[in-house]
Design goal:
The chain is built from ten helices and eleven strands. With about 300 residues, it is an alpha/beta fold. The strands form two sheets. Strands 3, 4, 5, 6, 7, 8, 9, 10 and 11 form a nine-stranded mixed β-sheet that branches. Strands 1-2 form a two-stranded antiparallel ribbon. It is rod-shaped. It starts with 5 loop residues before the first helix and ends with a helix.
Length: about 300
């Protein structure tokens, strides 16, 4: 006995709904003989008659009516599958998981994702914040679709691609003597109270090297782990700070001004992903928008 297929069930359901082969053929956009063949094949697969045939008329048997309660449910499920596939294709449904270093994960990435998926309620977002040295472990454990790091990942199981660069800016109290300058030279900060990101932060080495290159001693009056904390200290007039330009993705603070550096300090942003897994469609879209936001931010900084 041959197994029934979806087209046979669709033909059966159509006849049950409209009451004739002619109407079913019009509903399915096929010929009447095609519907007749599908009905006959479906009856053979069931092993019992589905209709009483009289000239110009089909009357469903009791068994056909009982069967229709099941096939109608199957058709409804098929419609749901088709809708789900369409939603996934059009990026209206899906899951995305991102891991990123704190400076980008605290403001820029969540704002981009929120704007992108605000009207797509069937997209589920997971955003993990890790230090750059820990991003690799998250990707290897399959906890995230892709990662953004300030370091490439040494693992052979991962792809590491330098996708963008970020600049550093000088954060100054709004009433500071240098607040009106278009750009800040490190020499201008020689006698300033410097607020620094912690020595375990990857940016510390880059900023320390720049201070040494310009012959300016780096003796921080405060070291903090997060750029947001440094920015808050600046807002209170505690000192000045060199911070990633990503800070500018956050809310405006009238007590702080951000100025580009006369001699730029830049660090690469690396995209970390598994070499054996392709990003989901919503992941590809999210990454594209994150990179666009980085480009826009860099254009403002420069």
């Amino acid at each position: 006995m041959a197994r029934a297929n979806i087209r046979q069930i669709e033909a059966f359901n159509a006849v049950m709904k409209v009451g004739s082969v002619t109407g079913a053929a019009a509903t399915l956009y096929v010929s009447q003989p095609a519907v007749t063949r599908l009905l006959k094949a479906f009856e053979e697969s069931c092993g019992f008659p589905l209709f009483e045939r009289r000239p110009g008329r089909l009357t469903p048997t009791r068994e056909a009516r009982q069967l229709f309660t099941e096939t109608a449910t199957l058709e409804t499920g098929l419609v749901r599958v088709q809708r789900a596939a369409r939603a996934i294709r059009d990026r209206e449904r899906g899951e995305i998981s991102v891991v990123a270093f704190p400076a980008i994960a605290m403001q820029l990435v969540p704002r981009v994702l929120a704007r992108l998926f605000a009207d797509r309620h069937d997209v589920r977002i997971t955003l993990l914040t890790r230090t750059s040295v820990s991003v690799e472990d998250v990707i290897l454990s399959r906890m995230a679709d892709f990662g953004l790091s300030l370091l490439p990942a040494p693992s052979a199981a991962l792809n590491s691609v330098a996708v963008r660069e970020i600049s550093f800016i000088c954060a100054l109290p709004s009433d500071h003597r240098l607040a009106g300058e278009k750009s800040i030279a490190l020499a201008d900060l020689r006698n300033e109270r410097i607020i620094s990101l912690g020595r375990d932060d990857l940016s510390y080495g880059a900023t320390a090297a720049a201070f040494e290159r310009d012959g300016v001693p780096l003796r921080p009056v405060a070291e903090v782990q997060m750029a947001e904390a440094a920015n808050a200290l600046v807002a209170e007039g505690y000192g000045v700070a060199l911070l990633p330009s990503l800070m500018q993705a956050g809310p405006y603070d009238p007590d702080v001004v951000h100025r580009p550096l006369a001699d730029p300090i830049r660090m690469k942003v690396w995209l970390i992903s598994r070499s054996d897994v392709r990003l989901p469609r919503v992941g590809e879209e999210a990454l594209e928008k994150i990179l666009e936001a980085l480009d826009a931010l860099d254009a403002v900084t420069v």
